[in-house]
Amino acid sequence: MLFNSLQFAVFLPVVFLIYWLLQRSLRWQNLFVLAASYLFYGWWDPRFLLLIAFTSLCSFLSGLGIERLQGSARKAVLWTNVSVNLLILCLFKYYDFFVQSFADHFLGGHADGLLLHLVLPVGISFYTFQALSYSIDVYRQSLRPTRDVVAFFAYVAFFPQLVAGPIERATSLLPQFEQSRRFSFDLAADGLRQMLWGFFKKLVVADSCALYVDRVYADPSAFGGATLAVAAILFSIQIYGDFSGYSDIAIGTAKLFSIKLRRNFDVPYFSRDIAEFWRRWHISLTTWFRDYVYIPLGGSRVAPWKVVRNTFIIFLLSGLWHGANWTFVAWGFFHALLFLPLILLRRNRRYRDVVALDRPWPTLAEILRMGLTFLLVTLGWILFRSPSIHFAFNYICGLFQPGDFLYPTLRNHYLFLPAVVLMFCVEWVGRRSQHPLERMPRWRWIRWMIYIVLIFMIVAFMQTSEMPFIYFQF
Amino acid sequence: MKRFLLHIILFVPVALVGVCLLICLLGGTGRLPNVVYRLGHADHSFTRFREADTIGPVDVLFLGSSHAYRTFDPRIYAARGISSFNLGSSNQTPLQTEMLLHRYLHRLQPRLAVLEVHPDVVCNDGVESSLFLLSHLPPSWHEVPMVLRERNAKVFCTAVYAAFRNSFSDSYRHFSEPVETQGNRYVSGGYVERDMEYYSPRKLDPIGVVPRRSQMAALRRCTRLLSDRGIPYILVEVPDTKALQYVESELDDFQDEVSTYGKFYFNCFPALDDSLHYYDAGHLNQLGVERFNAFFCDSILLPSVLNLCLQ
Questions:
Q1: What's the confidence (pLDDT) of residue A360?
Q2: Is A459 within 8 Å of B3 when comparing Cβ atoms?
Q3: pLDDT in tens, A334-369
Q4: Which of B22, B58, B79, B144 allows an S-S link to A456, with CB 3.0 to 4.6 Å?
Q5: Are A143 and A174 in contact (CB under 8 A)?
Q6: Are B269 and B239 in contact (CB under 8 A)?
Q7: Comparing C-alpha atoms, which of B109, B114, B102 is closest to residue B146?
Q8: How far is A208 from chain B (nearest CA, A)?
Q9: Which 3 state secondary structure label does DSSP give B157?
Q10: DSSP assignment of B243-291, as one string?
Q11: What confidence score (pLDDT) does residue A472 get?
Q12: Higher local confidence (pLDDT), B275 or A471
């Protein structure tokens, strides 16, 4: 079920009402959340419910096992659970990719008999990482294992963040399922506002950019350098609108159920260098890799060559997490190259606060730094969006074709540009808040007018065919 | 919780009015992608519906897509003493046919209805046709169920803007469509005659026929509506060129299903030549129209009318 579908428009109010009717019984409420989440997930393909249930069961049992056992047996249980989960992930997501890559290099490309052609279950990377974090946290004794199987299954499958994050930690989400929740008017109203902003970013900005981007990426050789450049920039905006829009809808939806999810985006395109960008983009994934891979490897407090190794491991894994394609690996490699000088020179934590924290406008130097960071990130997105390395290389070459850097074509697709400008302006104004609509004027009629204008823009600009979220494929 | 629900209940109607107001105010700027309001088209819908609003009862009413308004020529039926009107429009699907029946049955009171059912249109979502009709028809409540059934932002926005524009704007009231546009001449009675052209047959890939459930349900409702009003009807699939092939098994399933809705005529027409009787792969030229209608009128329609008289 997509957030931008009519089914969800019916599903959400019904689930919301029943959920709060069951307020008196925590167990029944959790059971209902679990049933609703499985219905939400099973809408795509009910077969994969078995997979998510299996992943949940393994992690739940491993948590109990880790608590009960001592010494190497604990470690064995942890590694068994990690291996089983990663094996499932690799089988569905990476098996065909690695076999095909091997066959391309050593068997002349003939791998037909070896390929499994499995359907990629939606959100498998997200819920697998969420389940893994639980058993690792229990092993590290930063969390007591839960004995409430329903609460745990609900934690893994909670529908707002099930298919595209934020990747929640058991330490913050699981306790919320273990204690009774009370309805909060302010939290629910804030949730609706955040959902509205998410829908605006997805339906108005991202989907409109997608029309232009898809057309250019379908055949880049047919377009001049300027059009390719515009499409590359628009893809940067599309992927931000799409993914951060999803996160806003997910976080906002969870607030309706008095459940708080972690922030996943913090105005990443206002970053002044790549290190800051990675602290603000897909925060839940970045911190997951930091806490469970980077720091155990020694982080940055080791010999310089190990810092280089750790940085590459993190970025290559992050690239591969996104998809089974060398383009994602190349994207990770590209970002590792950009990040490395900053970490080696210990300048990676230079910008901790949001830009122009106590000023309305940035300085010229900040504008230039933000612009440069945005351009570098945009160059990386070309690798991310391309179907192959060769395609990306040709695309980048096409940007600089001599004599072809003319005024961009496809001009009739620019109707949505005011919406893009509006998005960045609103995000700039609200950059110190959790989301731009968090702090609204006191007068209700002004607030309502803002909501009505946003709803109007959604209705008047949205694409009429359902366009899935980009991160669903990961 | 009660306060929250109260706010929602209060906000929804206010938001609906506000959004509609903004659509009405800004719809004419041409900057809203989901407002698709265009007056005047080669299918002459504007002229057809204006004429339909002025005429009285007819013997036969034709409805359907371009296959209907480019095939059923009222002059041929008039020559045989049968009055008729053609309410066909571009890409008209059963969802729009249903709306038109609700709107015009009372005025036209046909003794027989001919519903043209083409495999192409039942696979169509009907959005394009809805936008057409909404732009050209004076607003009425009959459009509301169609708009709700389409569940499409484009249809909703265009309906709101068209209702506003067609109610209050002079440009709609005083709009006049030329009788002939781009080789298409409007003939009184709803028919559109095309300048004589011939089709050059070429090989086309077979087209799949996967009818939408919403369209088949709308077709069922159309036939029920006619039955309830005591108006006999026949369903017709107008012939295509042999070049236009459909996936055979899917076409058979479609024809079998439509046959359960009423008397369905297909594959029973005299041989028509691809390069002589058509101007494109799916539409008859005037030569084909005359040949087809002569057969249809004498072999299918008149016996049906006779049957009615005997009843």
A1: 87
A2: no
A3: 999 999 999 888 888 888 888 888 888 999 999 999
A4: B22
A5: yes
A6: yes
A7: B102
A8: 10
A9: helix
A10: TS-B-HHHHHHHHHHHHTTS-EE-S-SPP--HHHHBSSSS-B-HHHHHH
A11: 63
A12: B275
Please check the confidence at residue A473 and state whether its pLDDT lies above 70: no
Residue A403 has pLDDT above 60, yes or no: no
Q: N- to C-terminal Cα distance for chain A?
A: 16
The band of A165, judged by pLDDT with boundaries at 50, 70 and 90, is: confident
The whole-angstrom distance between A236's CA and the closest CA on chain B is 22
The count of other CB atoms within 10 Å of the CB of residue A411 is 8
Contacts of residue B11 in chain A, CB cutoff 8 Å?
A: 448, 451
pLDDT higher than 60, residue B301: yes
- Among the partner-chain residues B15, B22, B152, the one whose CB lies closest to the CB of A464 is B152
How far, in Å, CA of B247 to CA of A371, rounded?
54
Task: Give the minimum alpha-carbon distance from B141 to chain A in angstroms, rounded to a whole number.
Answer: 22
Q: Compute the distance between CA of residue A401 and CA of residue A225 in angstroms, rounded to an integer.
A: 6
Length of chain B, in residues: 311
- Give the number of other CB atoms < 10 A from CB of residue B309: 7
Catalytic option among A322, A335, A413, A435? A322
Structure confidence at residue A466 (pLDDT): 67
| Residues present in chain A in total | 474
Angle, helix B153-168 to helix B143-150, in steps of 10 degrees: 160
Spell out the long-range contacts of A171-176 with Cβ–Cβ below 8 A and sequence spacing 24 or more.
A171/A137, A171/A142, A171/A143, A172/A260, A172/A262, A173/A259, A173/A261, A174/A134, A174/A143, A174/A146, A176/A259, A176/A260
Report strand pairing: B60-63 vs B84-86. Answer: parallel
Per-residue burial over A8-27, b = 16 or more CB atoms within 10 Å of its CB, e = otherwise = beebbeebbeebbebeeebe
> Which of these ranges, A257-261, B116-120, B199-203, has the smallest mean pLDDT?
B199-203
Mean pLDDT computed over A148-161: 93
End-to-end CA distance of chain B: 64
Tens digits of residue pLDDT in B95-110: 999 999 999 999 999 9
- Domain B35-310 sits in CATH at 3.40.50.1110
Written as six digits, the tokens of B79 are 């020559």
The secondary element (H helix, E strand) that includes residue B4 is helix B2-26
pLDDT of residue A406: 56
Residues B197, B191: Cα–Cα separation, whole Å: 17
- Listed residue (A66, A91, A86, A63) closest to A76, CA to CA: A66
- State chain A's maximal CA–CA distance in angstroms: 71
A455 contact residues in B (CB cutoff 8 A): 15, 18-19
Best B2, B5, B6, B7 residue to mutate vs chain A (most A CBs within 10 Å): B7
Residue A335 designated active-site? no
Over residues A173-210, the pLDDT tens digits come to 999 999 999 999 999 999 999 999 999 999 999 998 98
- The CA distances from residue A232 to A208, A375, B43, in Å, are 14, 10, 41
Structural element, H or E, at residue A425? helix A417-429
Give the start-to-end residue ranges of the domains of chain B: 35-310
Q: Is the ipTM of this complex over 0.85?
A: no
